[in-house]
Prior knowledge:
Number of strands: 8
Number of helices: 17
Radius of gyration: 29 Å
Amino acid sequence: MILGGEFLQFYVTLDPPEGVTPDSKEWVGAWWMGMFFPSLFVFVFSFLVLLYPRQMPAAKEVLQDKVRRGITTALEKKIELGRNLKEITKDTIPAFKRLIKNQALTFLIIGDIFLFLSVGAYSYYPKLYVMIFRLSYKELGMIKGVSSIIGFGLGLILSGLLMRIKEWDPKQLQLVYAIISGLAVPFTFGIMVHCPTSTIAGVDISYSELLNSSQLSLPSLNDTCNSECACTTAFFQPVCDGNVTYFSPCHAGCHDVKMEGDVVLHYKDCKCTPSGRAMPGDCGQQCPTRMYISLFITTIGTVIGFSGFAAHAYIYQRVVSEVDRTFTQGIRSSVTRALGTLPAPVLFGWVIDKFCTVWRVSEDGTTGNCWVYDLDNLILVFAFLRVAMRTLSFTFYLLCWWVYPEKKALVEVEDEEDLKKAVEDSGHDLQNNVENGLND
């Protein structure tokens, strides 16, 4: 996010129109840089994954535990290591049926879907933070970037420490992860701590009420005091009088302006303002204290949420048969992205648009982006929607723990030495397959 804030200082085409600066409402930053350069970095270093062995050294212990639980057998492991591409493809439908019947896996994936739906809201957090704290995108990139690095970093460190505390039983670990997920839910309300929103004339309050007119009217940007100005919403140029913001000097009914060189000092002869004057800019002020409180709350939530990262990945490896492990990762990735990651921005984008109070309308009547939002209600609905999704995610993680096989109710192993020998044989079979493949 720190780099993203710097990239947004460049215009999207790298050649900004005359008079348009990063502080202008019409400015569109080079958002594509934030995707292009990290993607190039990931592509180059992804080849290092090829250096991993086909089977990690600790796989023998994992296999022994799965055999005890009845999740897999040593024979299945042998079959998996010896399968070719044709056999793997042929087993796709039977494997899919097996995964559907796995209740623990099903609840785990559904929990992830709701988690990804909630996380999808982060696509709009930069936009919301800029509006509710009145920051530039560069300032936001620096502040939010640092808080995110701290949150992710500490969370991942705690995640590793959690796994090293003891030899976790998978069922116990799933309960721990569910509890961690539940503890992170209240911190989602951190975004509700924000600066007081601006009162906009013609949107939040009527001109007649501002001017103490006896002829009351409903809030509308166009009123009798600016009827001669033919004002439009093609451009947003806020001006301030007292504690009330006006959409533009035109909507404030201003007929004159005092300038010093190229700098506007104030607007004069404004028919729609009580004082008859208006200062350039929004009336709202930054609120550093509230901003840091909000960031502190959300950062703590990030730390807690990511402290279960390693446990979550571990559970996915233990909840399915050895032979279905790779297929499970593919199903999980496809389903959570199709039902969580992809629709989330669409859902939250639709919610944001519902709270738009002033749209940009060009001179030809074309409707463009939104200029003004009902921020108080938008943030409230936004936060509660995310909390509802996180709560549902927490509920399904608990259900996963509830149906996870008990260690005592597992397949009986008559001879522990036979089990170890079978696991050792599966490792030898893997080595032989690799050596034969190299010789071929």
